[in-house]
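Justification of resources, computational component.

The compute hours requested in this renewal are based largely on the per-chain cost of generating structure records like the one below. Each record pairs the submitted sequence with a full structure-token output. That output is archived, and it is also reused by downstream analysis tasks.
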Amino acid sequence: MLSVYDGFFSGGARILHSDVVLGLQEGGQHHRVLSVHGEVLREATRQAMQDDACYRSLTAAGVEVGTLGRTSGLPGAGPAGFTGPELATTARAMAAADVVLSLKEQPLALLNQAGLPRRPVIVSLHRSDPENQGGALDELKAAIADGTVVACVCCAESTRAAYAAAGIPPEVLHVIPNGVDLLRFRPDPVRRIRLRESLGIPHSAPVVVFAARYDAMKNVPLFLRAARAWLRQEPAGHVLVCGAGMSVGQPGLHADIDAAFGTDPALADRLHLLGVRRDMETVYAAGDVVALTSAWGEAAPLCLIEGMMCGAVPVATEVGDSAAIVAGHGFLTPPDPGAIARAWSDAAAAHAGLAPVLEHSRERFSRTRMIAAYGALIDRVHTESLRPPLPEPPLPEPL
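The structure output for this chain reads:
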């Protein structure tokens, strides 16, 4: 198996896909990863492949990770087209694989290049806005038309519906809902206390967690306006913010904070900017509420699932499959700061009462279930690729 990444940078899709690769490797498959980019500048954060948590977890498990060595958003980004050496590296990696997994549709710009070995490609799709992916949708359509892409894994029903509406044949779209490691993501009183104490947060204080990269789709300004409203009405409350670009040195984020908090800058003292974290299970365990304020693009937000499995009550705007994930477990809100703040208070108050509900739903969000479904689809694609083609029908006898 070969997985092709556009790059290693902070984001739920890479975390999810890397976990799938690890799970399939644990189950006996042999996996390699090829990353188009070796370093990127995203969310005002310079992110090198070797520093990424997914890269480290893959290599620690014995998964070979290579790269074409490109950079994105940095000086020396290289030519627009792919060079001969880059295509040769890709050809060698593909030749050693039976099936290729493409992390989202962006790597298809590489996999669609002429002259590469023919291997069945499965594309994992993790958003609900295919028309907002630049030329990647056209690359996906071209790859399906010429038989390169034989299946697409949609992480949510909203993904399948959006791509079908955009013209992708429904028969190639398969839904495998996101899942997480239930041994890692679970309520943990010890982690909860330790992180709170390290941040100076009282044990009894209500805490909201916002895990998102600094990106327009996450609607950070809306989140910050809701945080201001909530911190005003909850004098003991604290808000934890983490993700790429969500750190002290990010000028855009600080401008958003200044705009949102306005005449109440002191409230921002209870807004903790944690940046990229490699211990999200600890961050979620410390919270009572996990928040999502995204405006578009989400499919099955990993933050909601991970937070819920750690005992945090989800509060989300209605985007992607958020309504289905939150149903019976938390609260949906309109994109209004006051409504969101009230829902956070209601969720924090319901934290203890909803614990049995969240515990009962754990199997639904299991990593084991997700990886088994991926494995079954890959096995089917591989088996079908080995079948000899049907013989051509005989030509009619001449009259």
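The longest strand covers residues 32-42. The chain has two domains: 2-179+367-386, 189-360.
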